Write a sequence for this structure.
């Protein structure tokens, strides 16, 4: 005949349950701590990549601005592309301001004079140029006219 274990006293059963609960709580605490560390690493990497994207957008905008200035000094006047490059550099700079100073703070610089009125940038007093596309998407050149 198989042997059966003697029933535990209520105190011993309670102690066994508490020990089991303590082991489970230690596992869950360890899991939560490891996931919190992983999330902190991911958020730090995300912030670093955001900064890198802003840095490259800034460098690209400054390079376009410098190129437009150099081409404007060429004898015979600037080529037609210079106006587009200057407009692109201005749009890129405005987009950079939006991405770093306005959009992360709930469109802090965007103002509207009333219901249905166009949204204006409080810095430039022009129409809001908050990018609808992802950061780094190219600005389309103006239509030839």
């Amino acid at each position: 005949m198989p042997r059966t274990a003697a029933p535990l006293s209520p105190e011993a059963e309670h102690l066994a349950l508490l020990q089991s609960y303590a082991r489970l709580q230690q596992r869950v605490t360890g899991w939560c701590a490891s996931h919190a560390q992983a999330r902190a690493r991911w958020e730090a990497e995300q912030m670093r990549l955001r900064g890198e994207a802003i840095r490259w957008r800034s460098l690209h905008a400054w390079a376009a601005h410098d190129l437009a200035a150099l081409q404007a000094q060429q004898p015979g006047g600037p080529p037609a592309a210079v106006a587009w490059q200057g407009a692109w550099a201005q749009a890129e700079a405005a987009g950079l301001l939006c991405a770093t100073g306005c959009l992360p703070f709930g469109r802090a610089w965007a103002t509207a004079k009333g219901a249905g009125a166009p949204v204006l940038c409080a810095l430039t007093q022009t129409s809001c140029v908050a990018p609808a596309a992802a950061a780094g998407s190219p600005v389309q050149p103006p239509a030839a006219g």
User: Anything to note?
Assistant: The helical segments are 10-72, 80-102. Residues 15 and 92 are 67 Å apart (CA to CA).
